[in-house]
Structures are given as structure tokens and as C-alpha cells.
Amino acid sequence: MKFLQLATLIGAALALPSDPDPLSPRQTCTSPKLRKSWSKATSAEKTAYLHAAVCVTTKSSRLKNNANATLHDDFAYVHALLSSPQKIHDFAGFLPWHRFFVQVYEKALQECGYPGTAMYWDWVADSPAPSKAKVWDSVTGFGGNGVSTGDNGPRLRVIDGPFKDFRPLYWNTDVSPHWLSRDWLPAQNGEPEISGANYSPARMAEVNAQTTFDGFRQALESGPHAAVHGGVGGGGRGLGDLGFQNASPNDPLFFLHHTQVDRLWWLWQQQDPQTRTFAYNGFHNTQDGSQGPTVMLSDILPMAGLAPDGIVKDYMDVKGGKLCYTY
């Protein structure tokens, strides 16, 4: 009889769901804040966000690498610093690191008096006509495409919107002051401008069909994510800040773009939350381009002095660890 009771207890224990990782956080936030689409935010919410984003471009640098640097320049510098060699792209850490990076920027906005949360540009919804998206509005948006003005080298200067007078300090980690630049790719062969066909609902359906974390990450990072960078920033021409991977946070629109990337990852996780919330696989990069060690939830997410470093496990669940928001 005792043997049967013991066997029953063992069987019940084996039936319990497995812990995805012993380091996984147990707590769940009770009042997650909603991150909104820019197109669905009110005019007051957009104005508050833009005022704070302009404020970030005027606040003093935390890194103190250059006397002329601002807090916004810090974000571009750290992104470039960690991009060479690759510590934040082209491997599993791309998604949790940028989730963390957006959170650091969100806090910078809040330090400038912004009462809300990060917002996203839903470029999937806008993919049929990206140039008509509300994010480009000159009053309630980020300004539009750049133009050749003769005072910005080969780059195309943004001449409208709240950032028309913004001069990012860095190009890569080099000091290279310039006017904020954009270079929209034109429509081609009947396809939308700004490379819209590459982040259409049909294209995202292909990405979402991936069943492993790193399969999804690769399909999203090298597909729609990269297409938006290239479409807004000029692709291989490199005449817009968003188009040059290392310098891309120079454009404040970067953070709406990457909040959308984060949202798409969250949506993929929600397809099977028990399995996918802490799904994490792949390999680290090495400086010589060879395959590095396997990634782990205990891996460090470096922030190079912009904020204290994080740990991957704390950025897998938007309602747990160091996070408390939803979409």
C-alpha cells in the first residue's frame, strides 16, 4: 500500500510543468502599464512624449566621453560600442538586450517629466503606405524624410518636426556632428516606398511561423527589423541615421521601431506563453566570427555605463523580472 502511495506521489510530481530555468523570476507585476501604438495615442500623449524626447537630446551625458555629448548621444554611443564586435546583434541576445535598452530610454523620458510609457510604430499596419504613417507628422510626429541642404555632407537633413535642429554627435563611436538625417528608399516595381513589402502582414506571418526562439529571432532581425532600418535610412547608401546599424539610435524614431520589435516578440511569446516566455537558445558571437558558447538565461546584458548591466532572465517576461508592462 505504501509503495502505491509513493508511486502516486512520484507520478504527480513528474506531471508538474518543468521549470524553464532555476533562475527564472517568480514574481509577476500586478499593475502592468500599457504601451501604445503611436497611431492610437492622443495628441496630448504624443506631445508629452515628444517634449520628453527633445529634453533627452539636451540633458548632460552620463558617460562623459565628450564635453559636447548629451544623454541622447549616450544611447547612440553605447549602441555603437556594443555593436563592434557584435554583442547585441546577430545572436539570441538581440531581443532581450534591445528590450532592456528601450526600458532604459523609457526611464530617461520619465526623468524628463514624461508620465507615460514607451510607444511603438506599428509598421506592419502601415506597410502598404509607410510614407503616410502618422509618425512622420511635422507637429504630432517625428518629422519626415531628409533633404539635401548642402550643410550636412552627403547625408539628407530632416528639416521639419521637433528634431529639425537636432545634431547627433556620433557616427559609430567617432565624433562626427551632423544634422539628423533620413533617406527613405523610393517605391520600386509597384512595391511601397520605405521597403514596405518587407514588413507586410504576409511577411510577418512567415516570421511568426517560426517555432524556436532563435529561429524567430533570426527571421525577425534579418527580415522586417532590418528592412525598416534600411527603408527609413537609405539602405546601402547610408545617408540616414537609422540606416547605419551602429549609429541608428541617433534618430529618436529608433525607440518606436524597437518597441515594435519588442511587441512582436511578445506577441510570438503569447502564442504559447508556458513554453515561449523563457524560450532562449542560440550561440554567442566571437570576435573572429566563429561560433561561440551556448547562450544562457544567466548571461549578462551589458549597458556600458548607461545603466547597470542586466541579466537575460530579467528581460524575458514583460510582466516579471525587471519589467511591468503589456501591449
Automatic annotation (TrEMBL):
Domain Tyrosinase copper-binding: 89-106, 251-262
Keyword entries, A-Z: Copper, Metal-binding, Signal
Any single Pfam family the record assigns to this protein: Tyrosinase
Xref: InterPro entries: Di-copper_centre_dom_sf, Tyrosinase/Hemocyanin, Tyrosinase_Cu-bd
Keyword Iron among record annotations: no
SUPFAM superfamilies, per the entry: Di-copper centre-containing domain
Domain of life: Eukaryota
Organism of provenance: Lasiosphaeria hispida
Residues of the signal peptide: 1-15
The protein's name: Tyrosinase copper-binding domain-containing protein
Gene3D superfamilies: Di-copper center containing domain from catechol oxidase
